[in-house]
Amino acid sequence: MNVNHKCIKRTCGERVEAITLSISWSVHSGSSKTPLSNTLDDHQLISYTGCHSFISLWEYFTRPFFGCVCHRRDCGMLLNETPIFEPSLLQELDWSSNTVPFSPPISPSSPGEGLVLRPLCTADFHRGFFKVLSQLTTTGDVTPEQFTKKFDHMKKSGDYYVVVVEDTNLRRIVATATLITEHKFIHSCAKRGRVEEVVVSDVCRGKQLGKLLVSALTLLSKKLECYKITLECSPTNVAFYQKFGYTASHETYMQCRFPN
Ligand SMILES: CC(C)(COP(=O)(O)OP(=O)(O)OC[C@H]1O[C@@H](n2cnc3c(N)ncnc32)[C@H](O)[C@@H]1OP(=O)(O)O)[C@@H](O)C(=O)NCCC(=O)NCCS
């Protein structure tokens, strides 16, 4: 077994280290074109290389080396399964107070066959998180280091509740939405919630996932004691949000954009 791996450490921000692990194609016993993941299972890969985990080997299929963004046990952390917020918050939602009908019935703990609803983690970078977001708006070219730095910032603030739906068979993210809590001095130092970036992958639309995400985040904002929850949407989506009790405000949404 000839596993040629090396860590390339790049300093990212204050403390995060990005490690790229390259494994020579010569690891294959047969054809040099056989994907590594066909030859070895995750467990074997982990034990051969000393990596903590492997993420989306297929993403790098066309490269001369498998470049798994991962972390070795003796290196700093980069992409991992640490949730951006406490997962029990989702599981403990009072789903009985949800006002939107689901047929067939689904819930945060049972979102459908082969699906899981959970907080975002950095490993989702290689599970197509940005691919889903790009169906909503321009995402730009984000590196794992930029993603991790932003994730850490959001997690540290404690105000970002980014949820994802993962297809556990394909290990792909198929939907996401975010609740942000904003702190106020008004209303006795109250909190308000904002719903942002609601998007369901086009191949999974019509399976009630959009409804599940918005219902879950609306209930979560209540649980977090927000005094109100708001969102901005295009006129074509007004009817969708009305299902959850959102009404169009008499106030006008204003913006000032700063071109680069
Ligand atoms: C809008 C979006 C999130 C809905 O997700 P989805 O998973 O396809 O929706 P669901 O299967 O949960 O549908 C829920 C219900 O809303 C309805 N619905 C879906 N999209 C709707 C829309 N744009 N307007 C009105 N109703 C809509 C469905 O008919 C369904 O109705 P029913 O419960 O009476 O059967 C999804 O279409 C999407 O990602 N669109 C692109 C990104 C986007 O526009 N996001 C919103 C940003 S504000």
From TrEMBL:
InterPro entries per UniProt: Acyl_CoA_acyltransferase, GNAT_dom, GNPNAT1-like
Pfam family, one: Acetyltransf_1
Similarity comment: family membership: Belongs to the acetyltransferase family. GNA1 subfamily.
Lineage top rank: taxon: Eukaryota
Membrane topology, from the record: Peripheral membrane protein
Uppermost EC category: transferase
Biological process per Gene Ontology, one example term: UDP-N-acetylglucosamine biosynthetic process
Domain N-acetyltransferase: 115-260
Listed pathway(s): Nucleotide-sugar biosynthesis; UDP-N-acetyl-alpha-D-glucosamine biosynthesis; N-acetyl-alpha-D-glucosamine 1-phosphate from alpha-D-glucosamine 6-phosphate (route I): step 1/2
Subunit structure comment from the entry: Homodimer.
UniProt keyword list: Acyltransferase, Endosome, Golgi apparatus, Membrane, Transferase
Subcellular location: Endosome membrane; Golgi apparatus membrane
Cellular compartments per GO CC: endosome membrane; Golgi membrane
Molecular function GO terms recorded: glucosamine 6-phosphate N-acetyltransferase activity
EC number: 2.3.1.4
CDD domains: NAT_SF
Name under which the protein is recorded: Glucosamine 6-phosphate N-acetyltransferase
Matches recorded under Gene3D superfamilies: 3.40.630.30
Chief localisation class: membrane
